[in-house]
Amino acid sequence: MSGPVALDMSGGNLSLFLLAALIIAAVPGPGIFYVAARTLAGGRKTGIASTLGLALGGLVHVIAGGLGVSAIILASAQLFTVLKLAGALYLVWLGIKTFREAGHALSEQIAPTGATQAFREGVVVEALNPKTAAFFLAFIPQFIEPAAGHVALQFMMLGMTSVMLNTFADVIVVALATTARANLLRRPNFFQRLRQGSGLFIAGLGISLALARRPATS
């Protein structure tokens, strides 16, 4: 049903959305920094898996937003706080885990983070981030055309497009971080410190999320 919805939306409005979504995707944000940190710490497969996990977690918010679930969560201070703290604690735990793993020499690591685990962690990180839900609810409705009908489907279609653009930007970041990682492997001591720094940065993202305030609702 997304085809008729897309046809009903005016071309100018859709073009404006694509431009805005592309600019937002290109601007470095927490997601890009998270993917870069995961790639530097675990390599290309970890970075790609984390990217796909974030994408699926983003789609969770898109569907929840289209169905009205996100609005309910953001309207409730208790639900927002629970989701926020759960996501923050998970990020802090991931950061500490990454930092501790980086404390060992590469040759001493027995079980580096696998792609499946990195994917799963990416899904959880994004799905438990209420700031993502708040972004979609603030950004997407500006481009929805009520007269075209199928408002929920319009929301989901635009949200999925935004997620795809963000994922494309993340993949580029993974490629750049992979190249940097290959060069840094020649300097093991510095690379070890960089991986520890990646862990601290991920934990810092968790602390930042914990301090986030619930958006004002009308």
Mean pLDDT comes to 85
Number of helices: 10
Q: Structural class, judged by helices and strands? A: mainly alpha
Whole-angstrom Rg: 19 Å
The arrangement of helices and strands along the chain is HHHHHHHHHH
First-to-last CA distance: 31 Å
Uncertain segments: 106-112
Tell me the strand percentage band. Answer: under 5%
Helical residues, percent: over 70%
Give the beta-strand count.
Answer: 0
Largest pleated sheet: none
Shape: globular
Structure characterization notes:
- There is one protein chain.
- The two termini are 31 Å apart.
- The chain has helices at 2-8, 11-26, 30-42, 44-67, 69-75, 77-102, 115-127, 130-139, 151-184, 188-210.
- It is built from 10 helices and no strands.
- The chain is mainly alpha-helical and 218 residues long.
- Helix 3 (30-42) runs antiparallel to helix 10 and helix 5 (69-75) crosses helix 6 (77-102).
- The chain is 79% helix and 0% strand.
Main traits of this protein?
218 residues, 79% helix, mainly alpha
Topology:
Elements: H1 2-8, H2 11-26, H3 30-42, H4 44-67, H5 69-75, H6 77-102, H7 115-127, H8 130-139, H9 151-184, H10 188-210
Helix pairs in contact: 2-9, 3-4, 3-9, 3-10, 4-7, 4-8, 4-9, 5-6, 5-8, 6-7, 6-10
Summarize the structure.
This protein is an all-alpha fold and 218 residues long. The chain has helices spanning 2-8, 11-26, 30-42, 44-67, 69-75, 77-102, 115-127, 130-139, 151-184, 188-210.
